């Protein structure tokens, strides 16, 4: 099953990094967050990717174009203009990189990669800025058992702020982290989709957000179901998130399910 990844946004809320590179190329532990996302899927046997490019897409193209040589020991015979490759640490990825437009919205990006999907086969979709320990096989099984056109992983992000426990007179007795169960469920990405969802995309969907009209129409038609994920999930939305993820990487990160 192929995996589609949105990687074309400008990442304006993390402009400290994104003015130099697209957000999916911001590094966690020396590797782009996009690589981490792909490793999650690869861990479950899914290694064919379609990446929707936009803002500074050439950076992503150049990274993967040169990936093999950057992860391989080799000998250069300058006299004979030969390169002998030795041991490689390159990944077993097959990647289709598609220019989907600088200003194109997410529904338009999805529409533009339709021709690269396997006919009549379900596919997966996610965003290029979020990692999780979602059980991909369980997610796929849930989707197939439901018979809906679209399955969306729902998560509870919890609050960024602590909660004060106060007495009636205002005395603060303790601080606690707000539990996730107190929050609403939101779109966490990690979709599994039937190709029937393309019937919900307008012919010219460039100015349409996948998260608005298409998902709302699927919901109204009873064709959208949520897979509730209670485990780890984090989106790299701000510089603080980037710092947090890098700190997590140094301490047995929960999304690192590969060896």
Report on the architecture of this protein.
The protein has 259 residues and is an alpha/beta fold. It has a single domain, classed as Spore Coat Polysaccharide Biosynthesis Protein SpsA, Chain A. It has helices spanning 15-18, 33-43, 57-65, 67-70, 106-112, 136-146, 213-220, 239-249, and strands at 3-7, 27-28, 31-32, 48-53, 72-77, 82-88, 94-99, 123-127, 130-132, 150-155, 162-166, 172-177, 186-187, 191-193, 224-228, 233-235. Strands 1, 4, 7, 8, 10, 13, 14 and 15 form an eight-stranded mixed beta sheet that branches. Strands 2-3 form a two-stranded antiparallel sheet. Strands 5-6 form a two-stranded antiparallel ribbon. The radius of gyration is 21 Å and the shape is globular. The model has no long low-confidence stretch (mean pLDDT 92).
């Amino acid at each position: 099953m192929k995996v589609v990844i949105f990687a074309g946004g400008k990442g304006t809320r993390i402009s400290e990094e994104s003015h130099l590179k697209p957000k999916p190329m911001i590094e966690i532990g020396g590797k782009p967050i996009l690589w981490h996302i792909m490793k999650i899927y690869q861990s479950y046997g899914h290694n064919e990717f379609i990446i929707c490019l936009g803002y500074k897409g050439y950076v992503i193209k150049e990274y993967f174009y040169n990936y093999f040589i950057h992860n391989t020991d080799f000998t250069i015979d300058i006299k004979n203009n030969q390169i002998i490759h030795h041991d490689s640490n390159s990944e077993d990825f097959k990647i289709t990189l598609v220019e989907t437009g600088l200003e194109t919205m997410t529904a338009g990006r999805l529409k533009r990669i339709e021709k690269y999907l396997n006919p009549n086969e379900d596919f997966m979709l996610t965003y290029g800025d979020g990692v999780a320990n979602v059980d991909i096989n369980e997610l796929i099984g849930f989707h197939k058992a439901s018979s809906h056109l679209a399955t969306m992983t729902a998560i509870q992000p919890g609050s960024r702020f602590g909660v004060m426990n106060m007495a009636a007179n205002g005395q603060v007795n303790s601080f606690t982290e707000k539990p996730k169960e107190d929050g609403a469920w939101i779109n966490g990405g990690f979709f599994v989709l039937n190709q029937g969802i393309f019937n919900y995309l307008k012919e010219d969907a460039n100015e349409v957000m996948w998260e608005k009209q298409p998902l709302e129409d699927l919901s109204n038609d009873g064709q959208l179901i949520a897979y509730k994920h209670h485990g780890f999930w984090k989106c790299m939305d701000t510089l603080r998130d980037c710092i947090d993820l890098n700190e997590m990487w140094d301490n047995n990160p929960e999304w690192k399910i590969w060896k």
